[in-house]
Amino acid sequence: MSDDENQFEQGNAGSSHTYTESAGSLKKGGYVMLKGHPCKITDVSTSKAGKHGHAKASIVGKDIFTNKTYEDSAPTSHNIDVPFVTKKEYTLMDIQGDGFVILMNEDGSTKEDLKLPETEDDFNLVKEIRDMFDAGKDLLISVLSAMGEEKIVGSREAQDK
After folding, report:
1. What's the CA gap between 43 and 30, in Å, rounded?
2. What are the 10-residue block averages of pLDDT along the chain, 161 residues in total?
3. SS (HEC) of 111-144
4. Which domains does the chain have, with CATH numbers?
5. Do residues 132 and 116 touch, judged by C-beta distance below 8 A?
6. CA atoms within 13 A on the CB side of 57
């Protein structure tokens, strides 16, 4: 056996966006993958084990990007995928005419690949961001990330240090 035979290519198996958790340990307000969508759990109920089966968890959640409701059930002893969800704040530098925003990271680098949300549910958030920005206020924009997607989910006025 030569040294070359033990060389393996390191790659991304595609599973780095989720981890598994027991369906019985999921809680309201947490996150879960339902029907392939990253969702925030709005309701979890468990049924007792039947004569021939396991106790089941019925999970209802809203997609964190589209706000669409999804439901699923799984035996409480089985594992279910949970997305890694992160929330990060950026300083709003500019709003382009096409709705894209220029955001500044803490290290001074800029992020220009995010657009203001366009769903009806986000109308008030977008109006608030535009009104405060147009008034010359310094804003911090909250961005939620999961499954390789990102969405603007909130804003607040930056506090002077």
Report:
1. 10
2. 45 67 93 95 88 85 94 92 95 93 93 89 90 93 94 88 52
3. EEEEECCCCHHHHHHHHHHHHHHHCCCCEEEEEE
4. 18-83 (2.30.30.30), 85-157 (2.40.50.140)
5. no
6. 23
As a whole number of angstroms, the distance between CA 54 and CA 23 comes to 12
As given in the structure block, the two tokens for residue 125 are 């958030």
What's the whole-model pTM score? 0.78
How far apart CA 62 and CA 85 sit, in angstroms, is: 14
Instruction: Return d(Cα 39, Cα 31) in angstroms, integer.
Output: 6
Tokens of 127: 């109006």
